[in-house]
Amino acid sequence: MTPTLLHRSKRMVLDSIGVGLLGSTTHVFQLALQHCQHMYAPDDVSSVYGRRGTRLSPTLAAFVNGVATHSMDFDDTWHPATHPSGAVLPALLAVSDMLPNNRKPSGRDFLLAFNVGIEVQGRLMRFSNEAQNIPKRFHPPTVVGTLGSAAACARLLSLERSQCSHALAIAASLSGAPMANAATQSKPLHIGNAARLGMEAALLSSIGLEASPRVLDDTAGVAGFSAFYEDYAPQLLTSPEEEGLRFLLEDQDMGFKRFPAHLGMHWVADAAASVHKLLLGELESQGMGQGSQVVGQVKDILLRVPHSKYINRPFPESEHQARHSFQFNACSALLDGEVTVFSFSQEALQRPDLLALLGRVRVEHPHDNPANFDRMYGEVQVTLVGGDVLKGRCDTFYGHWRNPLTNESLRKKFRSNAGAVLPREKVEGLIEAVEGLDRLKDCLPSNSVPLCLTSRANQKKSAKTSENQL
Hints:
The structure is a single chain. The chain is 47% helix and 7% strand. It has helices at residues 3-23, 27-39, 58-70, 84-98, 107-125, 144-156, 161-173, 187-206, 248-251, 265-285, 292-297, 319-322, 326-336, 346-349, 352-358, 407-418, 424-435, 449-452, 459-469; strands at residues 46-48, 51-56, 298-304, 361-364, 378-384, 389-394. Strands 4-3-5-6 form a four-stranded mixed sheet. The longest helix is centred in the first third of the chain and has 21 residues, at 3-23.
């Protein structure tokens, strides 16, 4: 692992923990946690984001922490389009918790397993042209994320080659969720299930369960991974033993969101925010204020965005729909100059000024604006009642892999997210723990309380449970 890879992957770990901690305050997370606590026998081995006194079995902890990570759609996004960290990190934290003390991984082993899980997702998606664009059929984390989780857990469990092959094949049988559940409370379950089911695939393989070794091959007449991507065309990969192997993350950086919504919203929000500044200038020149005065000046709003049905929602009725609405995010930025965590509260959704603006929005889909996170743009054109036209355009928002967040900005986001549930000293401890992860001798709780989220009182039971399960 090169310094670039370590730097980028630690940024992903930090951001993922932060959005997971903030996500532990959401209603959908609480529902998932109640389900696990009430429907399954207690097995207090692995820790849960934002719940100091709560522990679950490793697979259920991976599930609820995955749900927390995606509960506000605040987690990282890669290209081709998927949310890679949320499917992998919760599973690895749960596996680390369940391993006996004499088998705890080093911090560097933990990061290597994490990067293996990310790499598998990126490689699989690059075998399909369909996967390059915003998805229409399957939500990508439920497909490649499940296999990424299985690969990461297989690596952390030190499975041998045939077991790794079976783990991936088992995971393929546990993959897939339809895009129709986007913008609902069920979408966060996609990430939770990817983490959980990938982990279960690795554990099943570790005790001898077998599956087809040809699932990832392109076999005529037999649908393997091509069931998810019809144009799937696998290629041989460079062996890790050969020189010249590079992780994809070294060449394709990660996208980190500044506010909790679908990645596509960041283009229109930034374009609309630039128009907001122009609007304020117009109002100031006329000696007028903000708020309703902004609404009174706007006659028509035109959005030029990619064609993608599930994020074209003219009048969202819930926070989850609002996070997947070009119209809502553009109007919020026009009204407030930015989109924040609080933009999706029930009170914010029902503001009369916002509803008035939504009623004036039209949408166009230019041919040169594809539904592709690497090539799309967002354009907002506002016509004022006096006839003046104000325009804003965003080709690359701040946080995109072409314009990544600085370390300072990423830590500011983390402090805000983690600070919603943790005291300041714990938040700073987490930042320090992740930064030093590659130098950590082992992930014993006494060495890494902030990262592995466990306690000495649980070490003995954790070791005993792990020996039984493995």
